[in-house]
Amino acid sequence: MDSEPEILVTNDDGIDAPGIRALAEGLDAVGNVTVVAPADDKSATGRAMSSEVRVHDHDLGYAVEGTPSDCVVAGLEALGPYPDLVVAGVNEGGNLGMYVLGRSGTVSAAVESAFFGVPAIAVSMYMREDQFGEPTAVEDYEHAVDATTHLADAAVETDVFEAADYLNVNAPHPEADATGEMVVTRPSHAYDMTADQHGDTVALRDRLWDAMASGDIPDPEGTDRRAVLDGHVSVSPLTAPHTTERHDALDDLADRF
């Protein structure tokens, strides 16, 4: 690429989160960064989409009263130069496992970009459950930003995005015993959601976070959750469209309708 790449940066924690500032500052060394991010925290909104959003100037770029997917569409189509790469993050907390891909606003921003045909990276920093609620600072995201700038600096010009629509990156927390190694992974298929009724409320809990905290997880080597727990930076190359699995049993049901 002869000129600096155009990079659109967004997140789901909101434009005032330290993770997106760390990411924007880090990627500034790689290309021309335009930030278009939610004005408020929009975590776990998936690919929720609005029909109209208000936009405000912000010292980082543009604050949008909408979701991460809104920000990608607005950024690509209206607010900034058309990007060569979209980067979402750094999310405060890991986005690990197959089941979180549709929930995560961070990952959903990357998926939205992929449907436009623009390569994307979703990046998150794993935190233990007891670390949530503790304030984070820009410098806490060093591992995640270093990994992302490394990928952003080279991936668009290589064949990485010939086979993958987006990369899901998860880095260890700075207090973790990080190895400094980046490993290519696949999302874990492990799933352990529970629900308990207490009067007129139902408490929903993801038991895999408990397993992560104790180190006792069912994930084999090669999965994203195992890699991060072992102190590595996990990179999962993923595709955005759902695949179609045609099979005789469903053909038979359709024929009998």
Automatic annotation (TrEMBL):
Residues of the Survival protein SurE-like phosphatase/nucleotidase domain: 7-189
EC number(s) stated in the UniProt entry for this protein: 3.1.3.5
Presence of keyword Nucleotide-binding: yes
Pfam families linked: SurE
UniProt binding sites for a divalent metal cation: D12, D13, S43, N91
Cofactor: a divalent metal cation
Cofactor binding mode and count: Binds 1 divalent metal cation per subunit.
Annotated compartments: Cytoplasm
Reaction(s) this enzyme catalyzes, per UniProt: a ribonucleoside 5'-phosphate + H2O = a ribonucleoside + phosphate
GO cellular component, one term: cytoplasm
Membrane-spanning residues: none
Name of the featured protein: 5'-nucleotidase SurE
Species, as recorded: Halobacterium jilantaiense
Gene: surE
